[in-house]
């Protein structure tokens, strides 16, 4: 099967100090699960998030502003693609060599066209960077003018604009690489948001696209059979974190919509994943989407775990 795998925050971070060494070590563990899919014969394309990483790049930028100019968010997005892509390339290359199944692995700086009038630009919703207490977050908001919000019961974070992805600029290059047996890492951090000017020039915009929506777009555009969203939980649940929590192994699009309408999925965390999977499953007959954890990816794909969303 052709599978687009979207790696979530927990696949890239484990809560330890985010030194380069620790970030690489987490990715070394992550790629074992990706390599399992490749070893099972699947054609895998990798996409990933960047929320914590791009937020930290902005912090580093701001801290060094008296020595060197601060860089805008679209540039920080591209830097996060380079940082994470570099680690995945290095770790997956080695994992495949260890298994005596070497394959070229490459990450591609990916721009994604967004609508310059997207409502997301006037209503920041995408959490990035570290978690703060409410008091710390509000102090940062007044000192630096950033927008902060509570993130799904986990603490306060900076939030930035998050427009909807419309067109993957480097799509043809991604297809060429995939068709030539290269394991491609693309649409990292949801892709760098750009607008297309009348003269055909792309221009970056300060925002972070949701990687679940960007991965869905990538999966549709590559005519993938499956979209797998890997996150911290094995399955999607209703009544999440309540005594009557019920984990779901299968969801039709109609059932998923009913639960979305009931508010069962937290905005900014599980909701975009479910919505991206619903969109992919509805896009063509036979397409399936799966939400599960890294650890359960292999058994979930064999039908023994995870939450499958299909028409
Ligand atoms: N209904 C739900 N079912 C399962 N998990 C949920 C649900 N609602 C919210 N969550 C939370 O969403 C998290 C996944 O979102 P997030 O951490 O933002 O993903 P990512 O892995 O992309 O960084 C899960 O770890 C879980 O804590
Ligand atoms: N860009 C993005 O969606 O990042 P996270 O998955 O880290 O939130």
From TrEMBL:
GO MF terms held by the record: carbamate kinase activity
Gene Ontology biological process terms in this record: L-arginine deiminase pathway
Catalytic activity: hydrogencarbonate + NH4(+) + ATP = carbamoyl phosphate + ADP + H2O + H(+)
One annotated Gene Ontology cellular component of this protein: cytosol
Domain annotation Aspartate/glutamate/uridylate kinase: ranges: 1-292
Keywords: Arginine metabolism, Kinase, Transferase
Pathways per UniProt: Metabolic intermediate metabolism; carbamoyl phosphate degradation; CO(2) and NH(3) from carbamoyl phosphate: step 1/1
InterPro entries according to UniProt: AceGlu_kinase-like_sf (IPR036393), Asp/Glu/Uridylate_kinase (IPR001048), Carb_kinase (IPR003964)
Family matches, as PANTHER family: CARBAMATE KINASE, CARBAMATE KINASE-RELATED
Protein family according to the UniProt entry: Belongs to the carbamate kinase family.
Protein name as catalogued: Carbamate kinase
Organism: Culicoidibacter larvae
């Amino acid at each position: 099967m052709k599978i687009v795998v979207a790696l979530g925050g927990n696949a890239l971070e484990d809560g330890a100090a985010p030194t380069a060494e620790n970030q690489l070590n987490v990715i070394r563990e992550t790629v074992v699960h990706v390599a399992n899919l490749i070893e099972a014969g699947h054609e895998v394309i990798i996409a990933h998030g960047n929320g914590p990483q791009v937020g930290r790049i902005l912090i580093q930028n701001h801290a060094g502003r008296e020595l060197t100019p601060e860089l805008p968010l679209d540039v920080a997005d591209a830097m996060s693609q380079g940082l994470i892509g570099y680690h995945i390339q290095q770790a997956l290359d080695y994992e495949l060599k260890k298994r005596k199944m070497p394959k070229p692995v490459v990450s591609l700086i990916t721009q994604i066209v967004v609508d310059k009038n997207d409502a997301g630009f006037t209503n920041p919703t995408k959490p990035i960077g570290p978690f703060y207490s409410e008091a710390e977050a509000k102090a940062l908001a007044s000192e630096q003018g950033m927008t902060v919000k509570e993130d799904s019961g986990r603490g306060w974070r900076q939030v930035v604009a998050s427009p909807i992805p419309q067109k993957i600029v480097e799509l043809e290059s991604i297809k060429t690489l995939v068709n030539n047996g290269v394991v491609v890492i693309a649409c990292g951090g949801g892709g760098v948001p750009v607008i297309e000017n009348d003269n055909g020039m792309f221009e970056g915009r300060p925002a972070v696209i949701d990687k679940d929506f960007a991965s869905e777009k990538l999966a549709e555009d590559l005519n993938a059979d499956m979209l797998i969203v890997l996150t911290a939980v094995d399955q999607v649940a209703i009544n999440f974190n309540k005594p009557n929590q019920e984990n779901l192994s299968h969801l039709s699009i109609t059932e998923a919509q009913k639960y979305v309408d009931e508010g069962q999925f937290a905005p900014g965390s599980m909701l975009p994943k479910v919505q991206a999977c619903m969109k992919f499953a509805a896009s063509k007959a036979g397409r399936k989407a799966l939400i599960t954890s890294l650890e359960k990816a292999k058994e979930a794909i064999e039908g023994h775990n995870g939450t499958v969303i299909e028409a």
